[in-house]
Amino acid sequence: MKKIVLSALLMLAVCGSAFAHEMELNDYKVFGKLNNETTLRSLVRYLNADEEQHGQLKYIFQLTERKVNSAVEKGDEVSAENAMFFNLGNAKSVLSPEQYRKYLLVLNLTVAGKEELLVAEN
Predict the structure, then answer these.
(1) What's the whole-model pTM score?
(2) Dist. CA 94–CA 58, nearest whole Å
(3) Residue 19 pLDDT more than 70?
(4) Which of 61, 113, 100, 53 lies closest to 84, judged by CA?
(5) Residues 28 and 80: beta-carbon distance below 8 Å
(6) In angstroms, rounded to a whole number, what is the distance separating the alpha carbons of residues 74 and 38?
(7) Which residues contact residue 54 at a Cβ distance below 8 angstroms, ignoring those fewer than 6 apart?
(8) In terms of C-beta density within 10 A (0-12 exposed, 13-18 middle, 19 or more buried), how is residue 31 classed?
(9) Which of 42, 103, 113, 118 is most buried, with most CB under 10 Å away?
(10) Is the separation of the CB atoms in 31 and 83 below 8 Å?
């Protein structure tokens, strides 16, 4: 049963960038919300990230927020998508593979508007 659940989570995480084509321009603002200190602390705790990763993620999220806000103000979907890929690529370079999968899961669930993930018990 664990293998099935992990496979499902992995599949969801691997499809992380697939939501880009389904997102509306304002949906990209989710990346700017990562720059909120409370949100960032919670994410760092969930990812079990160390202090160095915390600092790097904070910097990435600050830059991403600027890029997304600029793109949304201009109504430029291509720039918004580029900002998303900037965030994903840099987060991937900072995080371990397991942490990155968790990060993608959080983003996917947030964008999809889901508040919880229902997982079958063993």
Answers:
(1) 0.71
(2) 11
(3) no
(4) 61
(5) yes
(6) 28
(7) 40, 44
(8) buried
(9) 103
(10) yes
Q: What is the C-alpha to C-alpha distance for residues 84 and 103, in angstroms, rounded to an integer?
A: 13
Residue entry with tokens 């979907």:
77
Q: How far apart are CA 11 and CA 74, in angstroms?
A: 34
Extract long-range pairs of 27-30: CB within 8 Å, 24+ residues apart: 27/111, 28/68, 28/71, 28/72, 28/80, 28/81, 28/83, 28/84, 29/68, 29/69, 29/72, 30/107, 30/110, 30/111
| SS3 (DSSP) at 62 | helix
- Residue linked to tokens 């700017």: 32
The tokens describing 35, both together, are: 């720059």
Mean pLDDT of 61-73: 92
CA distance 94 to 20: 21
